[in-house]
Structure formats: structure tokens, C-alpha cells
Amino acid sequence: MKVFTKEEVAQYNGKNRKPAYVIYKGKVYDVSASFLWKDGTHQVLHSAGVDLTYALEQAPHGGDVLEKFPVVGIIPSSGKSQTPSKP
Amino acid sequence: MARVAREMVEKAGINVDQLVELLVKNAAAELTTYYYYTILRCNLIGLEGEGIKEIAEVARIEDRNHFEALVPRIYELGGNLPENMKAFHDISACPPAKLPKDPTDIKAMLTVLVEAERCAVRGYTHICNLTAGKDHRTYDLSQAILNEEIEHESWFSEFLGEGPSGHFMRRGETSPFVSKFLR
Fold first, then answer.
1. Hey, is the C-beta of A36 within 8 angstroms of any chain B C-beta?
2. CA-based nearest residue in chain B for residue A46
3. CB contact under 8 A, B96 and A59
4. Can you give the pLDDT at residue B101?
5. Distance (Å) from the alpha carbon of B143 to chain A's nearest alpha carbon
6. Domain boundaries, chain A
7. Superfamily of chain region A2-74
8. Over chain B, what is the mean pLDDT?
9. What is the pLDDT of residues A63-85, one digit of tens each?
10. Cβ A44–B25 below 8 Å, yes or no?
């Protein structure tokens, strides 16, 4: 399993045909194939390339929605988001 | 545009441009769902399909009503609908509720229907959370739509046998919660 830094994941922001990766509880998910992550944006407020652990706690769905997406790597010691992606 | 109404929402701390974008995306979801549900309804045939057809039709009509109810609020807040219908389809807040490969597979049909409703329930919960106590009119509208989406989800979920039924089909007119925005 590839080990990412948050800075590396930030490159995969879904813009300009780049893949869209998001971090959740230390795992890096590839959500590029999702209709709900077009252009690296989800429901207007959330962007790909960041740690969404905090945002998912506030979301009207659980982290289980990510289970159908491939895990492409991990972030070491990243159980909690340090940079909430709330607006 | 309702200039003062928009100002009040901005002063309450809401990013109105983001809110409008969310409303447009959800309006797109409603209209596209209305379209895709039309195809689903046409294919709900046979002993099992006909049993679901009536609630699918009510959900279809109510989703169209939701689109109609959302549009004035979008324009009041200074937004607009995209000129291009395809662009509108593609910005939908929910994935297309496409006909399953085997339309005679009633479980697959119900899964498409319930997933569409669940996406809507999440979307309006999100808008209610954003606007609660800040944008009273959008909250009221979103809450009314949410009430109907929750009932749609329950109908399809109960047909899938996910749990005991607490619901029955509509009695009387469609859109009991949203109709006040359509008069």
C-alpha cells in the first residue's frame, strides 16, 4: 500500500483531469469515478485532495459511503483531520 | 432578485453563492429524477412491477413539484438556471436514476428508486443544516421537500423489506408538504 503525505494527496484534487483522492481516517480513497465528485468537488462545499475526516463527521452520511471506492494508500498517523475542510 | 431577502441571508452568515449553487444542483436532481422515473415507471410492468408503479408515479410527480418549488427561491437569491439543459443535467446533486439492465428485476428497480431518494434525503438534510436559524425561507422550503423525500425513501425501502412499515401511500393530493410553495 502506497504511503502518502497530505501534500502529495493535495495534488490529486480532481481538477484538470487529475484523479480525485480524499483522506478519511488515515486511508486515501480514489473517488474519481463518483458522479458526486465531478471536477473534484462534492456538494459545492467539499474539495478533493484533502482530509475529510472531520467533514464526514458533520455530513448527512457516514464514512461507509467511501467503502465502494478503492483505497489507493494510507496516511501515517492521520486518524483525525487537522485541517477541517468546512467552509 | 429579492435584494433585501438576499442581504438578510448574507448577514446571517451564509455564503449565498454557495447556497444558490446547492439549490441549482438539487433542482437539477429533481428534474432529472422526474425524467428518469418516467422511464422507470414505463417499465414497471407485470405482477410485481404494477404493484410499485403507483408510488413510483407519486414520487415522480412530487419530484417535479420540488423542482417547481425550488426555482423561485433560486431566482430570489440572485441565482439562475443554466441555459443549457445538458449542463443542467450534468451538475445534478444526485446520480442519474437509470433503468437497470434487467428492468424485470424488481429488486434492482427498487434499489435505483431508494438510492435516488436517499441521495435527496441527504441533500436536503444538508441544506436544512446550513440554513437553520439563518435563512428561514430556504429552510422552510428544504424542510418541506425533505419531508416528502423521507416518505418516498420509506415507501421504496418497505417494498424492499428493509423493515416494518410505518407508512401508507398518499391519501389525497400529492405534495402535502410542498404544495404551499406551489400555489
1. yes
2. B18
3. no
4. 97
5. 14
6. 2-74
7. Cytochrome b5-like heme/steroid binding domain (3.10.120.10)
8. 96
9. 999 999 999 999 987 444 444 54
10. yes
Task: Name which of A36, A44, A60 is nearest B125 (Cβ-Cβ).
Answer: A60
pLDDT tens, B74-125? 999 999 999 999 999 999 999 999 999 999 999 999 999 999 999 999 999 9
B14-181: CATH topology is Ferritin (1.20.1260)
Interface touch A60/B21, C-beta < 8 Å: no
Point out the residue among A35, A36, A45 whose CB comes nearest to the CB of B18.
A45
Chain segment A11-51, per-residue pLDDT in tens: 999 999 999 999 999 999 999 999 999 999 999 989 999 99
Question: Looking at beta carbons, which residues of chain A come within 8 Å of B90?
Answer: 38
Q: pLDDT category, A5, cuts 50, 70, 90?
A: very high
Chain B partners within 8 Å of A44 (Cβ): 18, 21-22, 25
| Per-residue model confidence (pLDDT) at position B1 | 85
Residue A63, CB half-sphere, CA atoms under 13 Å: how many?
15
Distance CA A18, CA A20 (A): 6
- Extract long-range pairs of B133-138: CB within 8 Å, 24+ residues apart: B133/B12, B134/B9, B134/B12, B134/B13, B134/B14, B135/B8, B135/B9, B135/B12, B135/B14, B135/B19, B137/B5, B137/B73, B137/B76, B138/B9, B138/B19, B138/B23, B138/B73, B138/B77
The pairing of strands A27-30 and A21-24 is: antiparallel
Q: How far out from the chain centre does Cα B137 lie?
A: 17
Cα A46 to its chain centre, rounded Å, is: 9
Locus of grid cell 417494498: B159
More confident residue, B164 or B147: B147
